[in-house]
Amino acid sequence: MSIKYPEILAQRSAHQVWTWDERDAIVYALAVGLGSDPLDPRALPFVYENALKVVPTFPTVLAWIAAPTFEQLGVDPVTALHGEQKIELHRRISLPLKVVVQGRVVNVFDKGSGRGAIVVTRHDITSLADGQPLATLTTTCFGRAEGGCGGSSNPPPSPAAVPERAPDHTLDVPTRTDLALLYRLTGDRNPIHADPAAARAACFERPILHGLCSFGMTCRAILETYADFDPDRIVSHQARFTSPVLPGQTLTVEMWQDANTIHFQARVKESGRLAIGNGKCILRPA
User: Fold this and answer.
1) Cβ neighbour number for residue 17 with a 10 Å cutoff
2) For 122-157, what is each residue's pLDDT tens digit?
3) What is the three-class DSSP state of 125?
4) CA–CA distance, 56 with 32 (Å, rounded to integer)
5) According to the model, what pLDDT value does residue 1 have?
6) Can you tell me the distance from the alpha carbon of 261 to that of 156, in angstroms, rounded to the nearest whole number?
7) Residues annotated catalytic, as ranges
8) Residue 184 per-residue DSSP state
9) Is 213 exposed, middle or buried (0-12, 13-18, 19+ CB in 10 A)?
10) pTM score over 0.70
11) Directed axis angle between helix 22-31 and helix 211-226, to 10°?
């Protein structure tokens, strides 16, 4: 298995059709921490089909599973790491919904033999009913075993920086010990999130939480803190994954506001280790 550069840049996936219903959105909302207080009237619409609201980061469930997958591109799925994720929202998500997805490779950055390679893909998601854009996903994968494949001579773009002052707000989001098993129901069945032997083979002490689950938790924190639980306020949401989270740990989301831009990062409360960094969320004015 290896990356073939520059041929990889010409790869385009076929149009893929995915169907989402209320159950899909509710499972996702539960996985990112909504509904933990069933008496909270602000969060209830995300986990109850009556006037259902959809978490803005929900479409990212396709980022790791829609073609072209990183495995199809020549990246070893056992040693690959999710590097960065961005979602841009173009319209409200109303369910049930059929979407068309087309993916392509944006760039490859070779760090050198033995040092890995960075592969960036883009997935355009449109509504099957009217052909209008719904969301755009930009996904970065770090292939730890793919260094020396060739790639762009330019360095990867620098991630967004968080302010150097104390956070304006923090919010703790607890995770359940079985949360990785729940999040797998959104579609990502990578065994490192369920099988202890597979996790150890990938150099983790035990199954880890999906990075995209933690990513969704940071969006959930911003929804509560700055958007009054209104998903239409989120224009885009992006971050870098810096270290794994174990199911059962608590994420402390740190947030800074600069007009309609919310910078954020998230730490594992039990250790203080940074799990998600360089976060940036753009809000639509209220």
Assistant:
1) 9
2) 999 999 999 999 999 999 999 877 877 888 877 888
3) strand
4) 11
5) 56
6) 23
7) 188, 193
8) G
9) buried
10) yes
11) 90
List the one residue out of 222, 265, 217 whose CA is nearest residue 60. Answer: 217
d(CA 50, CA 34): 15
Q: What is the pLDDT of residues 225-245, one digit of tens each?
A: 999 999 999 999 999 999 999
- The answer to whether the CB of 110 falls within 8 A of the CB of 147 is yes
Q: Of 231, 192, 210, which is closest to residue 34 (Cα–Cα)?
A: 231
Extended beta strands in 21-96, E state: 80-89
Which tokens hold the place of 215?
Answer: 């990513």
Token duo for residue 121 = 């893909």
| Three-class DSSP category at 90 | coil
Amino acid at 28: Y
Spacing of C-alpha 10 from chain mean position: 25
pLDDT tens-place string over residues 240-262: 999 999 999 999 999 999 999 99
Q: Measured between alpha carbons, how far is 215 from 173 in angstroms, rounded to an integer?
A: 12
What is the separation of C-alpha 259 from the centre of its chain, rounded to a whole number of angstroms? 24
Q: Where do the DSSP E strands lie in 144-233?
A: 169-174
Structural domains of the chain, with CATH: 7-283 (3.10.129.10)
- Mean pLDDT value across residues 87-94: 97
CA-CA distance, 262 to 280, in Å (whole number)?
A: 6
